[in-house]
Design goal:
Strand order of the largest sheet of chain A: 6-7-8-3-9-10
CATH superfamily of the largest domain in chain A: P-loop containing nucleotide triphosphate hydrolases
CATH architecture of chain B: Orthogonal Bundle
Order of helices and strands of chain B: HHHHHHEEHHHHHHH
Oligomer: heterodimer
Structural class of chain B: mainly alpha
Shape of chain B: globular
Radius of gyration of chain A: 19 Å
Structural class of chain A: alpha/beta
Largest interface: A-B, 34 and 25 residues
Strand content of chain B: under 5%
CATH class of chain B: Mainly Alpha
Helix content of chain A: 25-40%
Number of strands of chain B: 2
Low-confidence stretches of chain B: none
Strand order of the largest sheet of chain B: 1-2
Number of helices of chain A: 10
Mean pLDDT of chain B: 84
Helix content of chain B: over 70%
Radius of gyration of chain B: 21 Å
Number of strands of chain A: 10
Distance between the termini of chain B: 50 Å
Low-confidence stretches of chain A: none
Order of helices and strands of chain A: EEEHEEHEHHHHEHEHEEHH
Largest sheet of chain A: 6 strands, mixed
CATH topology of the largest domain in chain A: Rossmann fold
Strand content of chain A: 15-25%
Chain lengths: ~260, ~325
């Protein structure tokens, strides 16, 4: 399953000495790692290790107090969410954040917000180019819907969908932006075996077909070890291991963290 | 027995006996309702996008009206300018002022309060109200102004319609208000349901963080909705002031919109319209047919009473979204 796909390219995202605290609580201390183009990169660690905080820093929701993030050669102290999105980073959330009142199709269409160019006025009167543009984006979204096999729920308000399907719609919305870097926060949490298998397949297909770089947080070790090219392990906000799945698996610090050895 | 008769039968007997009066009452109720609907619409736009009850909507109506009249005064004072040209130039400039106001509110009030609880934003709109009152009085003075209806080609006079052996009288300005309001509502509805901006607006209403993650700029959306509700305020100001005049007392209509919102639901544009019409008609019918039982003057509180009764049965309003939280 983990046959080598595209060879990893140059460094796409580089995180250096990131530190983040909330009041007196240190969520991340001095974290550094690199993600290369076309990789499937996983962040793992016990609960409260700071994994989601790390993703939120990359995505610009949190502003780390120290360190820097270099994305596509540009180094920043802090990222800003909607700029990040326009730079080709899309994400999903641990607790699904969909637009619950809107249909599956509309949700996925919002993912293309940044790709739409027509002016306000043209849109308002649905005039020529604006209409044509809307149709092109619609077509793209239909392809994503096909790809994720969710044709049957195109028009259903997502609030009514079961959890597993909502996760899939959320992935669809992220894909609609044609991201270069896709951040997935626990894409398989709460899924049954079959749903997990589907989700793995989608992730690998995205990585394979579009060369999308993937950075994911996941608790299911079987999945992580199967589909990741490289893994970084966090515990109590510190990095305790990094490397290919088999290296990480045999790393004593990682084993201790997961088995709960007294520090 | 007599009381029951007076409450449940007599009003309807009266309605049947003088259908022309009934028609007149209904018409006036509808006209009042259109204006309520317009005010409520301004609230709904902002509530949808930011989850905030914008207390300042009332003063925005006054502010827009005063700015229009004030600018008209300045422009016609420049020399021999045609009064219609001056009026429309003032209208255009006022639209510009409302845009600047929207940008200013986003920069100075909303942006620093991102991620604060809704109640904080609500209090901020109170602050905004009093700032606008102060600034308005400083610039335009406190005394009421006459709206420039004629200069804007808004019709005056009335048409009588002979029916049921009596007359029903239609004020032309009311007809114009109804038409303009309908056009504006239709335009906004299409804009917000069919365009990218509309989709983005609904997205922001649903989830701020998800909206940010797909690259929707909250700042841009907020400027757009505050500008849109500023335009609604301008139209409301013109129409309302055409029937009386522009004064700071008008800002109290913000509170008149509350029952409309409860009835229609805070998040629904059609709800604002239907709610406005129901409240408008309900008020006039109640005042005219049931008011005498209580010695009259019930128009001022009847709407709140209707809204309270309504809350018992449909807390989410006629068209509002029912919120079911999983526990």
């Amino acid at each position: 399953m983990s046959a080598k796909r595209r060879p990893p390219g140059e460094v796409l995202l580089k995180v250096e000495n990131i530190s983040l605290s909330f009041g007196g609580v240190r969520a991340l201390s001095d974290i550094s790692f690199e993600i290369r183009r076309h990789e499937v990169f996983s962040i793992i660690g016990p609960n409260g290790a700071g994994k989601s905080s790390m993703l939120n820093c990359i995505n610009g929701f949190y502003h780390p107090q120290g360190g820097s993030i270099t994305y596509k050669g540009r180094t920043r102290r802090q990222m800003r969410p909607h700029e990040v999105a326009s730079q080709g980073i899309a994400r999903t959330f641990q607790n699904i954040a969909l637009f619950r009142g809107m249909s599956t199709l509309d949700n996925i269409m919002t993912g293309r917000s940044l790709k739409m160019r027509a002016g306000l006025l043209a849109q308002a009167i649905r005039f020529g180019p604006a209409l044509k543009e809307e149709l092109e984006h619609r077509e793209f979204c239909e392809r994503i819907i096909d790809f994720l096999e969710i044709e049957s729920i195109r028009k259903v308000p997502v609030g009514r969908l079961p959890y597993g399907l909502q996760k899939r719609v959320e992935l669809g919305r992220a894909l609609a932006a044609e991201p270069e870097l896709l951040l997935l926060d626990e894409p398989m949490a709460g899924m049954n075996l079959e749903e997990k298998r589907d989700m793995c397949r989608f992730i690998l297909d995205v990585n394979d077909e579009f060369g999308t770089t993937i950075c994911m947080i996941e608790h299911d070790m079987g999945v992580v070890m199967d589909i990741s090219d490289r893994v970084v392990v966090l515990d109590y906000g510190r990095k305790i291991g990094e490397g290919q799945p088999e290296e990480v698996r045999s790393n004593q610090a990682v084993i201790d963290a997961y088995l709960g050895v007294q520090h | 027995m007599d009381l029951l008769y007076k409450i449940f039968l007599d009003p309807f007997v009266q309605m049947g006996a003088a259908p022309d009066l009934l028609l007149q009452t209904l018409w006036e109720g509808l006209v009042g309702g259109v204006l309520y609907a317009l005010i409520a619409l301004g609230f709904v736009l902002i509530f949808k996008a930011s989850g905030v009850f914008n207390f300042a909507q009332g003063i925005m109506v006054v502010f827009a009206g005063l700015t229009l009249v004030g600018l008209f005064g300045v422009i016609s004072g420049l020399g021999n300018v045609n009064e219609h040209v001056a009026a429309f130039a003032a209208l255009g400039l006022t639209v510009g002022v409302m845009f600047v106001l929207a940008v200013g509110i986003e920069r100075l009030v909303l942006r620093p309060l991102v991620n604060q609880p809704d109640i904080i934003l609500f209090m901020a709109t109170f602050g905004l109200t009093y700032v606008l009152i102060g600034v308005g009085e400083l610039i335009f003075g406190g005394e009421p102004k006459v709206m420039i209806t004629g200069e804007l080609f808004l019709p005056r006079g009335s048409t009588d319609w002979e029916v049921f052996g009596g007359f029903v009288s239609f004020q032309h300005i009311d007809l114009a208000a109804a038409i303009i309001a309908s056009l504006m509502v239709a335009g906004l509805a299409v804009f917000f349901s069919k365009t990218r901006i509309g989709r983005a607006l609904r997205a922001v209403a649903d989830s701020h963080k998800a909206a940010l993650s797909v690259g929707i700029s909250l700042e841009q959306i907020w400027v757009i909705v505050w500008f849109a509700s500023g335009l609604v305020a301008l139209v409301t100001g013109i129409m309302w002031a055409a029937r009386s005049d522009v004064s700071f007392a008008l800002q109290i209509i913000a509170l008149r919109a509350l029952p409309v919102l409860i009835l229609g639901g805070f998040t629904s544009i059609p709800g604002a319209i239907v709610g406005g019409l129901i409240i408008g008609v309900g008020e006039k019918l109640g005042e005219f047919y049931w008011g005498p039982l209580l010695g009259g003057g019930i128009e001022s509180w009847l709407a709140y009473f209707i809204a309270l009764v309504f809350l018992l049965f449909r807390p989410q309003g006629l068209f509002g979204e029912k919120i079911i939280e999983r526990v």
